[in-house]
Amino acid sequence: QHFSFGVTPADGGETFAGTIESPLHNVVNPGKDRETILRIERATRAGEFPPDALPAKILELALLHDKVGMHDKAAALLKRLIRQQPEYRQAGLCHLSNVYGRKGDAYRQEKCLLDAVLAGSAMALLNLANLYSRKGRWTEAEEMCRRFEAEEPSAIGMVLLARCLRAQGRNDEAAEALADAFRRFGQDLPSF
What we know:
Blueprint: E1 2-7, E2 16-21, H1 25-28, H2 32-45, H3 54-67, H4 71-84, H5 89-103, H6 106-118, H7 122-134, H8 138-151, H9 155-167, H10 171-185
Antiparallel strand pairs: 1-2
Helix pairs in contact: 2-3, 3-4, 4-5, 5-6, 6-7, 7-8, 8-9, 9-10
């Protein structure tokens, strides 16, 4: 699926390493998603979609490329969508952050989520809280949870807030947050 390589100058020095997506991946994996990608790309080139449907098709293509492991192609499509279609900025940034997360690029993932928060995405607050909690940045995670809860109260936000409080040794507040979550969202909590 990918080629890894390293280049070292002949006179010594630091080795440059990288990964390239294999063009053979298209040939070796002709699954349903791959066929959908090819069908959408052909229809786009042939002008079969009305102009107002193109942004949604670009987003669909990006998500399919990400699903089949072609993260660089997905990122390029999402960046293009964000640049050209302001109404897709929030969703595009959130999806791009997921692509960077799958690629292991935590810096760009965080940057995309912060940009999405600035663009008004409440879901990006929750994703950022989750990212910070995975990194052990509990104070920042708590802040994002509280901001998310102010905009879109939810069971998952309350449970994550309780986790952040507990990790900071604030067990009484964590118990209170969980009790509040059960009172407000009891029917949604069994999935956790």
